[in-house]
Amino acid sequence: MRSINVGGYPIQIMQDDQYIALLFEQNTWFHVIYMNRDHPKDLEPTWFGHSVGHWDGDALVVDTIGFNGRTRLDTLGHPHSDQLHLIERYTMTDAQHIAYEMTIDDPKTYTKPWKNTRVFTRMKPGEELIEYSCEENNSDLTNGHIK
């Protein structure tokens, strides 16, 4: 979710019959959505949680649970707990745009569920994700402190 809420970095969506994968240019993150199935009973908490998806007409609905509670919702630092339940809807509004809506439901952190919406614009033809590395100003690396 933080990867969606950080503006300016592209996302590539890849899909087949069983999975949808979101590839994030920022930090070279990725997230897999398991299509048309239930969450496992004994989830091991993870940074991105466990996502299952289904189509509701033209909208992709993604249900995510199983967060470890150690991340933030956005770059402003809005917290969440390990009880976060995230529901996302992706709807193509035309050939160039996807309407995105997320609902945050975390009874340990917030008094009631809340939503955030935004619109994604398709990358121009020929544009692709590029390598992301945050090492250019890493003085420990360039000064030999990290081997």
Q: How does this structure look, described?
A:
The structure is a single chain. The protein is mainly β and 147 residues long. The chain has one domain: Lipocalin (Beta Barrel), CATH 2.40.128. It is 5% helix and 39% strand. The chain has an eight-stranded mixed beta sheet, with no helix packed on it. The longest helix is centred in the N-terminal third of the chain and has 4 residues. It is globular and about 55 Å long. The two termini are 33 Å apart. The model has no long low-confidence stretch (mean pLDDT 89).
Question: Characteristics of this structure?
Answer:
8-stranded mixed sheet, Lipocalin, mainly beta, 2 helices, 147 residues, single chain
Concise summary:
The protein is mainly beta. The protein has helices spanning 2-5, 139-142, and strands at 11-15, 19-24, 30-35, 50-56, 59-65, 85-94, 97-105, 114-121.
